[in-house]
Structure formats: C-alpha cells, structure tokens
Prior knowledge:
8 helices, 2 domains, globular, TIM Barrel, alpha/beta, six-stranded parallel β-sheet
Amino acid sequence: MLKKILKRFSIAGVLLIVLAGSYLFWVSDKYVVPIMTYHNVDYSDKPRMNLVTPENFAKQMAYLHKHGYHVIAFSELVNSIREKKPLPQKSVVITFDDGYEDNYTNAFPVLKQYHFPAIIFIVTDVVSKPGFLTWEQIKEMEKSDISFGSHTRLHTYLPSLDKAEQRNQIRGSKEILEQQLEHSIEYFAYPSGGFNNSIIALLKEAGYKAACTTNRGYHRSNDDPYIIKRIRFGNNDDLDISLWAKLSGCYQVFRKWKNPE
C-alpha cells in the first residue's frame, strides 16, 4: 500500500514539474522588454491614476538599481525591434508623457543619481506654461541622457480629428521640437494611446522611426516599432511583488487587449 501511495505521489510530482516547465517555457517565449510609463512625479490631495509621489518614484528607481536591471535608452529598444535582435532579460526602458515640470524637479535628480536614461514625450504647445517644462530645462536634461519625443501639439486624441489636423498635430510638434533643440526628433507617443493605420502612415510620412501607445492594439510582442506597448507605473506599485510582476517581461501576456482607437 505504501509503495502504491509513494508511486502516485512521484507520478504527480513529475507531472507537476513537466507542467511547470512547459508553462515557464511558454511564458519565456513571450518575453517583452518592459517599458515604464510615468506622467506626474509629485504630490496631490486627491488620488490620481497618473501620479506617483517623489518618494515612490525614488523607491522604484532604487528597486531597478538594487536588482540589477539594465536601463536602456528608448533608441536602443527601437533599434533592437527594427533589427530583430532580442535584448537581454532585465532590460528596461523609462518613459514620461506630457512634459510636466515635476519631471525636472522631482524625477530628474533621481535619474541622474543612478545614471538612468529616459525619454519624455512633449506636448509642444504647453512648453514653458505653468506646471510644464521650459525649453531651458529640456535642454539641460538633454545633456544628462534624457531624450525627447513628440506627444502632439495639444494632446488631442488623434482618431477624433480630420486628416489635416492629425497632420498638424503630428508634423507640427516635430517641427517645433526640432527648431528648439536643433536636432531631429524620431519618436512619438499617441495621446491616450489612440491610433489607426492612417495615423501610422502620417507618422512615417513625417519621418518618425517609432511610436508608443499604452495598452492598445493586438500585438503583445512589441515587434512593430509604431505600436510599442508600455506599462503604467504609479503609487500603487509600492511593493516588490508588484514591481517584479510588471518588470518580469511577461506582464503583457496577462493584460486585457484594447482596441487601437
């Protein structure tokens, strides 16, 4: 009797090992470099989805440093996608949307402390307005591994616009950034993540090499440089288990699919 029980347990153990190994193999095949997305790094009296406090942002950056994550420039990620060359696991990209002034006052010192590169997607027509980055701050940040991309002129939801205004938002923001910064601007982020094939065609026409969405679109692998999915980080990500899950490279597999538009 005892031998039969032990035999059953051993068979069950082997099955569990096989199933676990198959699952891990399946998940590892879905690995995607995690792209962290931030907006405000500041304080607020009311809970806000797109806000992380300076303390929690510093904790998240310290987690990357402590656990040996390799923070790479967005351009390096784009090159790997275009060349179809996988990046090492534990690579990660840091992005910011909109261009809030607190990115300079509260996030920039922490990024410099760890020598982490990042990219900020700018809404060009609000630069130097209260609460937003100035051109002087942007130029200073560029000297310390912070790059910049376009987030349209007015943060308008592109699928809701006619083609002429879409072109104005896409091309106009690029021209403003290039005039102010005196170099080409190659990267774009869709406001609220909304896009379609016509909008992608306008990006290519304007000379952009890649574009970020949020969690919109049906391709989880990030193999299309114009539909790069990102992961939002905020104040709720204050536990190591949450950070580990979102930075695992397999987080996209379990997210709900959203329509592009």
